[in-house]
């Protein structure tokens, strides 16, 4: 989900990726200059994980700065996805930009605020250059790597955007759009590999 309010209020976004018109690597101050990449899935068949059925939708990889981390235990999704990371790339990975934003996470949402009348970079750029991601570790190794991630680090990861289902009809589907907002706009990532770059 994403809500975008005026400068006097909290802006909330849940957007993951932006592959068209990707920014150049030459972005002053950017620690993760390139946008996430979505590719056609090379894995078509659904598979089972801990009582859930996962359907791969697209191959996905990214390098991004960790703007925030939130762990969950009580919601239904936590059975499969215990951790959300708020991530930034392009100028949203520049510490001088990020430090001008008040960022927090709760309820599977990513929130940002700023002081004054204008954000440090255009709001449209914040939207396409940062996101909240729901991570589903593929195995114990991926889970351990995710557990070590801390705010301020730059991470590189790969996996799949997925749709998750249960026999009772419950469904959780990743966004596949570049600029959608509202319900269903978040990305659900089946995490195969994650490394901390620095």
Can you describe what's shown?
By secondary structure, this protein is mainly β. It has 3 helices and 11 strands; from the N terminus they run E-E-E-E-E-H-E-E-H-E-H-E-E-E. It has helices at residues 95-98, 123-128, 140-147, and strands at 11-13, 37-40, 47-49, 52-71, 83-88, 101-106, 109-114, 130-137, 154-165, 171-173, 187-196. It has a 5-stranded mixed beta barrel. Strand 6 (101-106) and strand 7 (109-114) form a beta hairpin. It is globular. It starts with 10 loop residues before the first strand and ends with a strand. Mean pLDDT is 86; it is low at 1-24.
- Work out the oligomeric state of the chains in this entry: single chain
- Average pLDDT number: 86
Uncertain segments: 1-24
**Largest sheet geometry:** 5 strands, mixed, barrel
What integer value in Å does the Rg equal?
16 Å
Proportion of residues in helical segments: under 10%
Biggest sheet: strands side by side, in what order?
4-5-8-11-9
Q: Which structural class should the secondary elements be placed in?
A: mainly beta
Give the structure's gist in a few sentences:
The chain has about 200 residues and is mainly β.
